[in-house]
Structure formats: C-alpha cells, structure tokens
Design brief:
Blueprint lengths: L1 H8 L6 H14 L6 H12 L5 H7 L1 H11 L1 H8 L4 H25 L5 H20 L8 H14 L7 H9 L6 H10 L1 H15 L2 H5 L1 H22 L4 H22 L2
Helix pairs in contact: 2-3, 2-14, 3-4, 5-12, 5-14, 7-9, 7-12, 8-10, 8-15, 9-10, 10-11
Length: 262
C-alpha cells in the first residue's frame, strides 16, 4: 500500500529505480562513519542532476529520521514526558550548539572538501580512545562539556566528506557511555537538527520533497533494518573493540572519499 501511494504521487519523469537506490545507500551509510552525504551527493549528480547534490544528500536524512524515532520510541517517550531529563538536557544542548556551528559552516564552506582530513582525525581519535580504554585510562569529561563537544562535531558534519556518525561517535566515546548507548545518543541527537535542516531546504525548494519521496521511503525501510543489526552488534562487543572498529571505519571512509572524490 505504501509503495502504491508513493508511485501515485511522485512527479512524472522521476526515475524510480535511481531514487530508490539513493535511499538504500542513505539507509545503510547513515549509521556508519562513512560520509553518506558524500556518497549520495556523488550518485545524485548522475541520477537527479537538476537538484543540488549536497542539498539532496542533506535532505535524505529526513528518510532515516523515522527509523530513529521508531527504533528508540521508548527512549523518545521518556524524553518527551520528562522521565529522562538528563538525556533531554543533553539533546537540547547538542542541538543548540550544532545549529549555531553548522549553519554558518554550511553557508560558507559547503563546497570545500576538507571533511576527509577531519574524518582522518576522528579515526585516529577513536583508535586512541580504544587504546586508553584497553589500558583502563579514565575519561573525566562531564555531561555538559561532552554535549558541547559533540554538538560542535555534529555541526561541523555539514562539511562534505565528514561523517556525522563518525564525528559524534568519536565525541561520545570521550564520555562514559557503553557502545549501544553511544550509538543511541548519536542517532537520537541527529533528529532535531535534521528536522531543522530539512525544513530550511524544503522552504527554499518545495519540490524537493516529492522528487525525493521514493528515496525517503526506501531509506526509512533499509535504515530501520540496518540500525537494528548495528545496535545488536554493539551489544556484543567491548568498548575498546567498538571504538577500534569505528576508528578503522573512519579511516576507511576518509581514504575512500579521497580516492573517489566525494
């Protein structure tokens, strides 16, 4: 039924297969420290050339947001009913900092490909965190300080080539969260920022929503399945192993981006 509705409302001329493929790519890479914006932007230049590639890549995060809302629905209920005020405060701080940092960065250096260099630093940072954790070196960053750091890193993730997941996972690894909670908070904190960015982009180009609708639907479905697999995997490994794996993924994402030019 959902697919029939999508087929009925998408504009004539929209290439369904290519649009769905963009959504699948977004649904998989959104959760990994590999820039989904860069990959989607690269593919969109060939599939939907009439839209700004970076704007479309940012807008497609709107498809994976429902996956975060559905998968972490109990946590969102606790936040919205003020049962988890610490997480609510953390999300408010990170959102305010991210928007304050991200908007001017987006407006000024959106076309400067420095994200790969930053992603290298995130990768080495995660590997260093893994080393410190393995040898029981304690990290003493408080909740508010951690929220500010992670908010800045999320704001910088508008830079092409810098993975939002990689940046925020690196920042959260400096605190005292377990691997599943690092992922949970990283993905939950993206929701208010993505909603704000998507509204801004839609306001400037209202046709963006209908033209990207198949991609939004496929990114939600694939993203929900991928999120489930990743969280279950994180529950089975130690923090040192977790940060080591994601550190190497950051390095892989940076190298891949440099090679293919995204």
């Amino acid at each position: 039924m959902l697919l029939l509705w999508v087929l009925a409302v998408i504009p004539v001329g929209t290439c369904l297969q290519e649009s769905v493929l963009l959504g699948v790519v977004q649904g998989v890479f959104e959760w990994l420290p590999i820039s989904s914006e860069g990959i989607v932007a690269l593919l969109s230049q060939f599939f939907v050339g009439e839209l700004n590639p970076i704007d479309l890549a940012l807008f497609l995060h709107l498809g994976t947001i429902p996956a975060v809302l559905v998968y972490f629905r109990r946590d969102w209920l606790d936040v919205l009913t003020f049962k988890n005020t610490s997480l609510l405060r953390f999300l408010v701080i990170t959102t305010m900092v991210s928007l304050a940092v991200g908007f001017p960065v987006y407006k000024t250096i959106r076309d400067i490909m420095v994200g790969h260099t930053l992603l290298f630093f995130m990768g080495f940072g995660l590997l260093s965190t893994s080393f410190l954790q393995k040898f029981s070196v304690k990290r003493e960053i408080g909740s508010i300080g951690l929220a500010v750091i992670v908010g800045v890193l999320q704001g910088l993730a508008v830079i092409p080539g810098l993975s939002r997941s990689g940046a925020t996972i690196f920042g959260l690894s400096l605190g005292r969260l377990s691997p599943p909670n690092v992922l949970k908070v990283s993905y939950m904190m993206s929701v208010p920022v993505v909603l704000a960015v998507s509204t801004y982009l839609w306001w400037g180009a209202p046709s963006l929503l209908l033209k990207s609708l198949p991609a939004l639907v496929s990114s939600f479905l694939v993203g929900l399945a991928a999120l489930h697999l990743l969280i279950n995997f994180a529950r089975r490994i130690s923090f040192a192993t977790f940060t080591c794996i994601f550190g190497f993924l950051c390095l892989f994402g940076a190298v891949t981006g440099l090679i293919i030019g995204i």
